Amino acid sequence: MKKQLVFFIILTLIFSIIANINIPYAASTGESVIEQNANTLVNLGIMKGYEDGTLRLDNKIKRSEFITLVVKMMGYDKDTNLENTKITFKDLKKNHWAYNNIGLALKYELVAGYPDNTIGPDKDVTYAEALAVVIRALGYEKSLKGKWPDNVVNKGSELNLNKNLSLSANQPLTRGEMSVIIYNALTVNFADI
């Protein structure tokens, strides 16, 4: 009888310990952190899926998609006035689906483009490039210290934008990884200006 009681107590302790372990998947839904973050962004109206209803979280994210996410995160997509914004990137046509969002990002000084007057709307965005724009959107650009890309990677880490991620500076991001960065940015206070 004593052995059965001891066994029962030990078994109960084991189950209570297992129940309190943090697993990177939601216990109730089976979703990964990336899926949870992406679905939250969809529910907030920041992220949209494709016509087929999928989010394609493993696909590389294009600069135009990324810029659109940041514009929506900041609520700038409600602004439709681009009259006084010069959009002169030689690789961005007016019929590009993200033309207005790129224009808004330019208007609100989130992006400047490359020195050769291009924006690379259909190029993959790297981790460092994404962090630079998010850090700028949150108002922390003036507090960057050091050289590119370490300065944005270090500031991103300080702001906890890299929570649940482990990426190198020049690594092209997936849509899922970007959803984690945007989700994490929603938890950061804006810099005091």
Distance between the termini: 69 Å
Unreliable parts:
2-29
Structurally, the number of domains stands at 1
Largest sheet composition: none
Strand content of the residues, in percent?
A: under 5%
- In DSSP terms (H or I, runs of 4 or more residues), the helix count works out at 7
- Please report the total strand number as a whole number: 0
Net shape: globular
**Helix/strand class:** mainly alpha
Helix content: 40-55%
Order of helices and strands: HHHHHHH
Radius of gyration: 21 Å
* Average pLDDT score: 87
Folded structure, characterized:
By secondary structure, this protein is mainly α. The protein has 7 helices and no strands. It starts with a helix and ends in an 8-residue tail after the last helix. The N terminus is likely disordered.
What keyword list fits this structure?
7 helices; mainly alpha; 193 residues
Strand and helix map with partners:
Elements (H helix, E strand, L loop, with lengths): L1 H18 L13 H11 L19 H12 L24 H9 L19 H11 L12 H9 L16 H11 L8
Helix pairs in contact: 2-7, 3-4, 3-5, 5-6, 5-7
Quick structural gist:
The chain starts with a helix and ends in an 8-residue tail after the last helix. It has 193 residues and is mainly alpha-helical. The chain has one domain (33-185).
